[in-house]
Amino acid sequence: MAPLGRLPGDIAIEKENVRFYFPVVTCIVISVVLSLIMYAIRWFTK
Question: What pLDDT does residue 46 have?
Fold first, then answer.
């Protein structure tokens, strides 16, 4: 498994003097995990 922040689908562009990295898939994974945690907290506190 790839470490968090280097998942397939993350955008990484490296040229001579420029490095650009945007973790698209990592952001989506974190968002889904946090949403599930918040849903579970709300479900158990009813």
Answer: 76
Q: Are 27 and 10 in contact (CB under 8 A)?
A: no
Q: Looking up tokens 């490296």, which residue turns up?
A: 14
Distance of alpha carbon 17 from its chain centroid, rounded?
A: 26
Q: What are 15-41's pLDDT values in tens digits?
A: 999 999 999 999 999 999 999 999 999
β strands within 1-46, DSSP E: 11-14, 19-22
Measured between alpha carbons, how far is 9 from 39 in angstroms, rounded to an integer?
A: 26
CB-based contact 11:22 (threshold 8 Å): yes
